[in-house]
Amino acid sequence: MPTLTFIEHNGTAHQVKGDIGQSVMQAATFASVPGIPADCGGACSCATCHAYVDEAWLNTVQAPEGMENDMLEYAFERRDNSRLSCQLIISQEMDGMVLHLPSSQF
Amino acid sequence: MTLASVVIVGAGQAGFQVAASLRQEGYDGRITLIGDEPGLPYQRPPLSKAYLLGKIQETNLLFRPAEFYATQRIELLHNQATAIDRVNRRVVLASGDAISYDHLVLATGAHNRPLPVPGGELPQVFGIKTKADADALAPLAKAARNVVVIGAGFIGLEFAAVAAALGANVHVLELAERPMARAVSREMSELFRQAHEQWGVHFDFRQGLSRIDGDNGKVCAVQTADGRVLPADLVVFGIGVIPNAQLATEADLAIENGIKVDANLLTSDPRISALGDVASFPCLQNDEQHTRLESVQNAIDQARAVASRLMGKPAPYSALPWFWTDQGDLKLQIAGLSHGYDSTVVLGSAKDKQLSVLCFRNDRLVAVESCNRMGDHMAARKILARAPKLTAAEAAADGFDLKAWEAANRD
Ligand SMILES: Cc1cc2nc3c(=O)[nH]c(=O)nc-3n(C[C@H](O)[C@H](O)[C@H](O)COP(=O)(O)OP(=O)(O)OC[C@H]3O[C@@H](n4cnc5c(N)ncnc54)[C@H](O)[C@@H]3O)c2cc1C
Ligand code: FES
């Protein structure tokens, strides 16, 4: 079970265990990490599961493409390392990965 | 105002969210969430799409794991509420127990309008509402050769796309003259008609059915209203829903196409709220006429509004409606409500399956429908959340770009 760390905008860190094949969004919401409303439940339709992949882990994940990239354009404070966490599927290589949460999802 | 106990009837999208939002806002009293479906609360949208295709599993449907309800002290009761005793402020359950409330929240959703024809009771005839429906339907959908879909609304078309992808011959009967006629513009209907036809779906518009024929208790054919016989081993219908308002009706709460609530989502009894698919509320985007919406956004945003009010922060509900449906490789997103629109401006191209239709009423932008143009949808949500100033003439100008307009008009 890979472990992920979510760091809230206020600095609070949450270590979360995720299942391989599960989305990063679901791993976080299942562990009650605050700040990820994920309104559409992972359908890539709401952009309220926005997270920043820690710079050190950017090589582990792909850049957002297509639909996700378009949705992110309107996410609050998009950056180069922005992803929609419902579109990030957990793999063994992600063990230890750090994600930062934005100050708002709306 | 401190309430000792909040009881929520209906553990679907809206009921779950009221419970979760109350705790998030720091509510410390007792929360009882009563649901008549087995298992943990789950989301419905994948039931007619990814879940049927086996692309996502059962646990991906859940809002939260079992531990959540324990740690958040949300008491989940698998039971059916059968009556509301308003005088003594109690909800009576099918088990015979009664639960007292300081505030009651009705989030009972809606059920599928049944198919009113002979043969509708055969076991291979399905509406899709619950996980149980989808679990029973999935193996039949995989094995089906001839599928007849009744109703070209969102759920009917989502299923038609799934069945076509699984290799069945799919025939859709629809009373209106085009797909999703009540919900989207002509231009958008046309794009979806063509796409479905490319996937092999066959449409019969202005056409109903007279009966479903069975052979040894199994569906074998559908007879159309004009007397043709379509071979069928599976029939799926999506012909609208009926709000689950019986509890409220019997408790003498005001009813108007669902449970009637005010701008604060309160029923005619100030100790009872109603929200989600079952509630008819004065909708800001529909000239404050009482409106019932069936969408995830509506359930979630209304739940947040109810939770905030119960925590002493009342505010009239005003959130912008938005919606999505996934069919094959098409994602249709709608921002706003197009009721009564009188003109449209089209961006993009139907041929490339990338289209946005801007709907205007009296030259005021009221809704934007986007197919595979997520950027337009998100821009539209921003534009429509304020009083929009975009005119049809501006939007129709050569080279107009919705995203660029939004960026330039962010006051
Ligand atoms: C197949 C399908 C696909 C959908 N796809 C989309 C989509 O792509 N996008 C979108 O925005 N929306 C979609 N929706 C709509 C969305 O799921 C609903 O609008 C939303 O679930 C409404 O939430 P609700 O809580 O009001 O009702 P529900 O989620 O239906 O929950 C109501 C619950 O209350 C229970 N209940 C009723 N009466 C009682 C009682 N007396 N006692 C105890 N429990 C009771 C019901 O059994 C049910 O579990 C879809 C719906 C379906 C069915
Ligand atoms: S949960 Fe809605 S886009 Fe990720």
TrEMBL record, chain A:
Pfam families: Fer2. CDD domains: fer2. PANTHER family: FERREDOXIN-2, MITOCHONDRIAL (PTHR23426:SF65), FERREDOXIN/ADRENODOXIN (PTHR23426). Keywords: 2Fe-2S, Iron, Iron-sulfur, Metal-binding. The keyword Iron-sulfur applies. Residues 2-105 form the 2Fe-2S ferredoxin-type domain. InterPro entries: 2Fe-2S_ferredoxin-like_sf, 2Fe-2S_ferredoxin-type, Adrenodoxin-like, Adrenodoxin_Fe-S_BS, Beta-grasp_dom_sf. This is (2Fe-2S)-binding protein. It comes from the Bacteria. The keyword Iron applies. Its cofactor is [2Fe-2S] cluster. Belongs to the adrenodoxin/putidaredoxin family.
TrEMBL record, chain B:
InterPro entries: FAD-oxidoreductase/Apoptosis, FAD/NAD-bd_sf, FAD/NAD-binding_dom, FAD/NAD-linked_Rdtase_dimer_sf, Reductase_C. Pfam families: Pyr_redox_2, Reductase_C. SUPFAM superfamilies: FAD/NAD(P)-binding domain, FAD/NAD-linked reductases, dimerisation (C-terminal) domain. The keyword Flavoprotein applies. Keywords: FAD, Flavoprotein, Oxidoreductase. It comes from the Bacteria. Residues 322-404 form the Reductase C-terminal domain. The keyword Translocase does not apply. Residues 5-303 form the FAD/NAD(P)-binding domain. Its cofactor is FAD. This is Pyridine nucleotide-disulfide oxidoreductase. It comes from Pseudomonas umsongensis. The lineage of its organism: Bacteria, Pseudomonadati, Pseudomonadota, Gammaproteobacteria, Pseudomonadales.
